[in-house]
């Protein structure tokens, strides 16, 4: 097939690597892509990938068999809508269904209608309204910006003043939700969805905080691992039955079929599993470890979801070998980031057995050197025969990468051991 992947990040790099590894020999283009994707031998044309008209014109000109939308911004902007209307198979929900991620209030309403287990939430529009709700719920306080916030709209804190400051920061941009605090282990579980049916991938767990021990501010994700040996054998079946299918069927009943990747952000509490959030796309960095273990052709499921034929597909096959990703970030992340610094040692890192790199924010300098251009710079993905080996390989590879002031967590997947 001729496949277009939209997006510029490490998630898109992982999708591209999976697609070009298939025996079918697809022609894959990633727009706008990044320098790491280009180094993988894939065309990365410049494109305003969040502009529906620009994407529609590009696809019409190039004649793709499948369009895969990576990040949330183009989904919420409605990039899928004109493509689907033109008869192009698209993996990614339309603008209305993408509100499942674009608006936490919308997601809560859908969950309530579908009787999906989740925590209580109250919408507030000001700090004055927030004070009463915060006192009712008590600490720890959970405050979430309603719309997209690049992973920085959620605050969990014991500090009431900090919670009110967060409300004051985000309230001018839209509603803010104050939610019940849920305690337990978090799980990311992805589902292919075709508007009516779903197929689950393998669970993963990511690490959102910047520092070891889940300390410091939230980030876009500092690492992840898969599978999760501590979840029950019927966990995926339970979430399919109680969360994913009811949500997809509810959206179908409302006339906004969800076609694409349903990301269920879950927490395993003493009272059972609860949904923390939904996303409308593959998660980053969990995608990197889930796809590293996927042995079935990814394109088969992307196309079946786009065409409404998931019910005819077998469950995907995953390797037993665990996978770990450690994210290397620039100095200052997730605050003000130091960029423009030279990265070295990538070839040595890639040479570690069972290991490959995904690029998030890199560029080539005038003499071919690698340069860091953003906060999360690289992901080191390693597989091993067990978690001890997978972690050892990942951290061996991280140790070979030199970037002045760089930071990474040293405890990714340590809790499994």
TrEMBL record:
InterPro entries: ATP-grasp, ATP_grasp_subdomain_1, PreATP-grasp_dom_sf, PRibGlycinamid_synth_ATP-grasp, PRibGlycinamide_synth, PRibGlycinamide_synth_C-dom, PRibGlycinamide_synth_C_sf, PRibGlycinamide_synth_CS. It holds the Pfam family GARS_A. Keywords: ATP-binding, Ligase, Nucleotide-binding, Purine biosynthesis. It catalyses: 5-phospho-beta-D-ribosylamine + glycine + ATP = N(1)-(5-phospho-beta-D-ribosyl)glycinamide + ADP + phosphate + H(+). Residues 108-307 form the ATP-grasp domain. Its cofactor is Mg(2+); Mn(2+). Pathway: Purine metabolism; IMP biosynthesis via de novo pathway; N(1)-(5-phospho-D-ribosyl)glycinamide from 5-phospho-alpha-D-ribose 1-diphosphate: step 2/2. Gene3D superfamilies: 3.40.50.20, ATP-grasp fold, A domain (3.30.1490.20), ATP-grasp fold, B domain (3.30.470.20), Phosphoribosylglycinamide synthetase, C-terminal domain (3.90.600.10). The keyword Ligase applies. Its EC number is 6.3.4.13. GO terms for molecular function: ATP binding; metal ion binding; phosphoribosylamine-glycine ligase activity. Transmembrane segments: none annotated. The keyword Ligase applies. One of its GO terms (biological process) is 'de novo' IMP biosynthetic process. PANTHER family: PHOSPHORIBOSYLAMINE--GLYCINE LIGASE (PTHR43472), PHOSPHORIBOSYLAMINE--GLYCINE LIGASE, CHLOROPLASTIC (PTHR43472:SF1). Belongs to the GARS family. This is Phosphoribosylamine--glycine ligase. It comes from Leucobacter insecticola.
């Amino acid at each position: 097939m001729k496949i277009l992947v939209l997006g510029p990040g490490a998630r898109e790099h992982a999708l591209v690597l999976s697609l070009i590894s298939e025996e079918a020999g697809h022609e894959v283009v990633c727009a706008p892509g990044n320098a790491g994707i280009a180094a993988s031998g894939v065309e990365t044309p410049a494109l305003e990938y969040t502009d529906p008209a620009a994407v529609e014109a590009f696809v019409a000109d190039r004649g793709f068999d499948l369009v895969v939308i990576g990040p949330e911004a183009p989904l919420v902007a409605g990039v899928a809508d004109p493509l689907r209307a033109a008869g192009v198979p698209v993996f990614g929900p339309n603008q209305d269904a993408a509100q499942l991620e674009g608006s936490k209030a919308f997601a809560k309403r859908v969950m309530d209608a579908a009787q999906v287990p989740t925590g209580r939430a109250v919408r507030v529009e000001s700090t004055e309204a927030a004070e009463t709700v915060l006192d009712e719920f008590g600490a720890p306080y959970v405050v979430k910006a309603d719309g997209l916030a690049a992973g920085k709209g959620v605050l969990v804190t014991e500090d009431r003043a900090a919670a009110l400051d967060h409300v004051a920061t985000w309230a001018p941009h839209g509603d803010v939700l104050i939610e019940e605090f849920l305690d337990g282990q978090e799980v990311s579980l992805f589902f292919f969805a075709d508007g009516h049916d779903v197929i689950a991938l393998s669970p993963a767990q990511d690490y959102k905080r910047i520092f070891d021990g889940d300390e410091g501010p939230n980030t876009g994700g500092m690492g992840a691992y898969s599978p999760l040996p501590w979840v029950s054998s019927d966990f995926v079946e339970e979430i399919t039955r109680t969360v994913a299918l009811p949500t997809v069927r509810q959206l179908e009943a409302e006339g906004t079929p969800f076609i694409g990747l349903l990301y269920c952000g879950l927490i395993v509490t003493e009272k059972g599993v609860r949904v923390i959030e939904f996303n409308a796309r593959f998660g980053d960095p969990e995608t990197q470890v889930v796809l590293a273990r996927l042995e079935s052709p990814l394109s088969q499921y992307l196309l079946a979801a786009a065409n409404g034929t998931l019910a005819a597909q077998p469950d995907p096959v995953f390797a037993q070998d665990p996978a770990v990703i450690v994210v290397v970030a620039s100095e200052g992340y997730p605050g003000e980031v130091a960029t423009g610094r030279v990265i070295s040692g990538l070839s040595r890192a890639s040479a570690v057995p069972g290991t490959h790199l995904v690029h998030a924010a890199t560029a080539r300098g005038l003499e071919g050197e690698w340069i860091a251009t953003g906060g999360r710079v690289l992901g080191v993905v390693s597989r091993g025969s067990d978690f001890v080996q997978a972690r050892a390989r990942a951290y061996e590879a991280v140790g070979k990468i030199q970037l002045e002031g760089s930071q990474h967590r040293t405890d990714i997947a340590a809790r499994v051991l």
